Structures are given as C-alpha cells and as structure tokens.
Amino acid sequence: MSVRNFRITPDLMLRAYQAGLFPMAESRHGAHLYWLDPEQRGILPLEGFHLPRRLRRTVLSGRFTVTADRDFAAVIAGCAAPLPSRGDTWINAEIERLFLALHRQGHAHSLETWEEGRLVGGLYGVSFGAAFFGESMFSVARDASKVALVHLVARLRQGGYRLLDTQFVTSHLAGFGAIELPREVYKQRLAEAVSARARWLPDLPPAIWREEVEALAACSRASTLGKCA
Question: What's the predicted TM-score (pTM) here?
Fold first, then answer.
C-alpha cells in the first residue's frame, strides 16, 4: 500500500517508522514521496545472519576500513547515485534532506567502507528504540557494502537491538538470511523493539569485533539460522 504525502517532517518520519511505514520517492528526480506499508515485510534476523566463508576472510583481512557516522552525507549520496547495475534510485532530494536532519538528531546512522582512504561503499538507516531500519547501501568496490553490513550486524547485536528491518527481501539479502514476515507479525515484532532500549555503538573493540565475526561464522557453518547466540 502506498499513500502520497506532500508534507513530511523528521518527527513525522520517526512516528511513521514506529507505526511500520517508510517513505520512498518515485525516482531520483521525483517530486513526491509515498508511504509504504507492504503486506510482506523483510527483516534480517540478528541471531541468524549468514556469513559466507569467503566474506569472513574479507572482513578480517584488513582490506577495508569501516567507520560509523563519519560521512553520512556521502553515504546517502552514494546510495542515491545511479549505477549501471541498478539504474535510477528512489532517493530524491527530499529524502536526502529528511535523513540528514534525522542524522543531526541522532536517529539516523551510517557505516562507511574505505579502501586506501577512498569511500567505496556503505549503508545507512534509522535507529529507534531497539529497532534499526536499514534504508539503502551502495558499493563501488567488490564486497564493500557487504563488509559494512557485517559491521552493522555486529554493532546491533552488541548494542542490544532486537530488530533489523530490511523493508523488502532481495536475492542479495536472502543470501544473508533475510526472511519475510506478514505485516501483522512484523508490527508485533516492531512494537516490542521500539519500546525497548538499545545502544548505537560507533566503535567496537577489535577483540569484540572478532568474537562477533566468529560467532556469525559458526552459526553459518552449523546451518542453524535463527539459533545463533
């Protein structure tokens, strides 16, 4: 379901996310935003994240440096930029303005992936209570956005988050263990998450980071999605 909306503020955005809605534009240059409330909602279970063996080697290799909230504006711009693999995007100027405002308020966060000092990927989303609403990711180097996603999951697990919303389930996200929930089931999970408390962690100590990566890898090897501690 979609509803056209001509006047959106950052506070309205937060209330909408708490109710299970999220905004999208028709296109990069579209003038209007729409509220979406899909019948099937995508989530990525934090206890069942699938970390492929090759990606584990990459995230531990030191090839990329990952930061949090260092350059939110650049990440959302990277997500909005058209790429040959995806064409036009749903992030217009109004979306950028609203999310930059949410970032300044401390409700929107980004992870940046750097290679030799150059921003090559990242992701961003909204945080409220113990829920994180993933919005978009981009990559101009192989595995850059995937590495950012692993860092996000590790931070959310360590910070006590209960829900990682992906909006929809793509084949890309399904490979990491993403699943669909019926709207009403999702909203029950959402209500529990937004009423709980969690901490956004800009940094993880190296030892804790490695423990998280190994725990996710162990879960994947055992094929126990949904049961990984």
Answer: 0.91
